[in-house]
Amino acid sequence: MVVMELVRTAYMRRFKCSGSRCPDTCCKNWSINIDRETYEKYVALEDPEFKDRIDTYVAPLPDESSDEAVFGVIGLKKDRYCPFLSSERTCAMQNRHGPDYLSNACVMYPRIINYVNGRVEQSGDVSCPIMAELALGNSGGIDFVEDDVDVERGERNLFFSVIDFDEAGFNEEMVDFVSDLRTRSFEIILDHEHSMEGRLTLLGMLYSDLQEKLEGRNVAELRAVMESDRVLPEAGGDVVSDIGGQLKMLQTLVRAFRGDEGCRYIEYERCYARVLAGIGGEDGGFDVERYKASYDEYYEPFMGVLGYLLENYVLNDMFRCLMPLQGLVSGNIMVDYYKLLLRYALIRVHLVGVAGADGGLTKKSIVNAIHLIVRSLETNRVYAERVDELIGEKGHENAFLSLILLTP
């Protein structure tokens, strides 16, 4: 056991799982990954109360797709609930055998814990409704606090992501640059001189310029790019008027995680019904004129007051996903950036629809919509594949960024 530096979002100090009182439950609608140690405990368990459920629902993953951290899976019952969820909406396995029989995924969710070059970082996943309220709801923004934590260095199964700059081949100068770039990225998102779309555009311009210089890892050149000034492009051109193209792209992504017959996540479907009530067209998609009207009349005025909710979402997402660190290590900082943009655009189109249906927005309606959307996307394989295809097809085009962030 070693003492390591812990940096976390301040709201994590206040988080406490509400258990059976949760307005939602993390024990439904998605299969639950289990680590090897937990899997072996389950298959060795002779308790007759759980034996049939373990035999029916607990299975190892194929060898080529498993590791120590994600070795098996707990399947769901026909009602889409975890087979170990009790009638009191608590974990029957934990109730009977204690917390040592929880998988790493169940122990950690909705906490996101990353290992970054000798430091532990902790934030929250807003797919949890309680975490969404804490992470998004502070009008003063997201603060970060430092602490110390005891961590077993060899036990990396609890880490969502692991980044080691030595393993990545970064020298001391590169490590300093990476830290400064992360700080600069957050500063751009917190610059209230521009709209959120403007801030995300400036961030994309910076990352795009850096991508061209990234392969050589010439720190002097990378710093020069980072420190250079950028000006938002003036409105105009064909892409700026293509709201219809943007909505078609977003409708394709919605269809990816909803499927042809709708999502099995009932709470999300109720939200989506309100979206269509606000901006839906006769063909079941998004109507351009209704979208523009709702954006101008309801969404934009309300977001002038409640815009901090989306700012908090973007900053929290960047911190938990280690932007741009993951991309600097992999050699492509644009992929995670585009994934963030698409999540942001999906959230925005849902909020415009809800605003149109309700005649405005409230803090509660925004937080609830973001929670439901993120929860629906979190582990959806079809959505992830479609996003990868879209980035692969369009990510090299300058117009792609403009299309995603386009506003009426």
Strand elements, count: 8
Question: How many structural domains?
Answer: 3
- Poorly predicted regions are none
CA radius of gyration: 22 Å
Range of helix content: 40-55%
Order of helices and strands: EEHHEEHHEEHEEHHHHHHHHHHHHH
Task: Give the class from helix and strand content and strand pairing.
Answer: alpha/beta
Characterization of this structure:
By secondary structure, this protein is α/β, with parallel strands linked by helices. It has 18 helices and eight strands. The termini are far apart.
Question: What is the structure about, briefly put?
Answer:
With 408 residues, the chain is of the alpha/beta class.
Question: How is the secondary structure organized here?
Answer:
Blueprint: E1 2-9, E2 32-34, H1 36-44, H2 48-57, E3 58-60, E4 72-74, H3 92-97, H4 104-108, E5 111-116, E6 119-124, H5 129-136, E7 144-151, E8 161-163, H6 165-168, H7 172-189, H8 196-213, H9 219-227, H10 243-258, H11 266-279, H12 288-306, H13 308-320, H14 325-330, H15 334-358, H16 363-377, H17 381-394, H18 398-405
Parallel strand pairs: 1-6, 5-8
Antiparallel strand pairs: 1-7, 2-4, 3-4, 5-6
Helix pairs in contact: 5-16, 7-9, 8-9, 10-15, 10-17, 11-15, 12-15, 15-16
Characteristic terms for this protein:
about 10% strand; about 400 residues; about 55% helix; alpha/beta; 18 helices; 3 domains; globular
